[in-house]
Amino acid sequence: MTEPDVASSDARNIRTSITTEGDDFVINGTKWWTTGAMDERCQILIVMGKTNPDADDHQQQSMVLVPINTPGVKVERNLTVFGYVDQHGHAQVSFANVRVPISNLLGAQGEGFALAQARLGPGRIHHCMRAIGMAERALSLMIKRTIGRETFGKELVQQGVIQEWIAQARIDIEQARLLVLKAAWMIDNVGAKGARKEIAAIKVAVPQMTERIIDHAIQSYGGAGVSQDTPLAGLYAGIRTLRIVDGPDEVHIRDIARLEIKPYLS
């Protein structure tokens, strides 16, 4: 979905064109942050583009299956995340007059936006589940680091500021865990659309919480915390990126506010 030349937090901005010529779609555009495209096992891409620019805003886009070896598909480069190669990398991919059969359409024309939203809701909760695990790991590393290391005559773990970080981390993790469990319960019982507010809430709250705990863990390690000798720098890069992935914080905050206000306007 994501493109370098538009604000991709609004999927309606997508510029990649998917036109029809005979029995084929012809695709032109550039995507980036294409997770998995750098993996040698990747054989097929799901490309979202505009099949009908004149339709309603949410019915202009469609999703099409494109084999990665199709003429005109070019993996341009690997994008790093704060200098790290994340997973197998995230590719920038260009499409120049790429032709695929119309039968490669996913669903129906104009359903691309709906298909994307159906995936993003549950996908966001998976991100938050992993983020809680990251917070737990950072907290454990912080406690282990501060036991046995002395500053100004006593162990770091006995310093009031460190104890406050540890206690607040436990409180924040448990609050976040319960919020994620509620969102999961809502998805199971009313579907992702019905759980929209809860999903947006965890997507804001959990990465921010985890980022704060990782930051404190880095601080407790000093220079080691930003080096390759601990996993903390990598965790920090990942969690900071998660505040952009699958919708930036600001978009989710706007949605939560609108959903809270809506009953008062009806």
From TrEMBL:
InterPro entries: Acyl-CoA_dehydrogenase, Acyl-CoA_Oxase/DH_mid-dom, Acyl-CoA_Oxase/DH_mid-dom_sf, AcylCo_DH-like_C, AcylCo_DH/oxidase_C, AcylCoA_DH/oxidase_NM_dom_sf
GO molecular function: acyl-CoA dehydrogenase activity
Keyword Oxidoreductase: yes
Acyl-CoA dehydrogenase/oxidase C-terminal domain mapped to chain residues: 110-258
Pfam families assigned to the protein according to its UniProt record, in alphabetical order: Acyl-CoA_dh_1 (PF00441), Acyl-CoA_dh_M (PF02770)
Gene Ontology annotations for the cellular component aspect, listed alphabetically: cytoplasm
Entry keyword set: FAD, Flavoprotein, Oxidoreductase
Cofactor entry: FAD
N-terminal signal peptide: none
Entry's family note: Belongs to the acyl-CoA dehydrogenase family.
Protein name: Unannotated protein
Lineage: unclassified sequences, metagenomes, ecological metagenomes
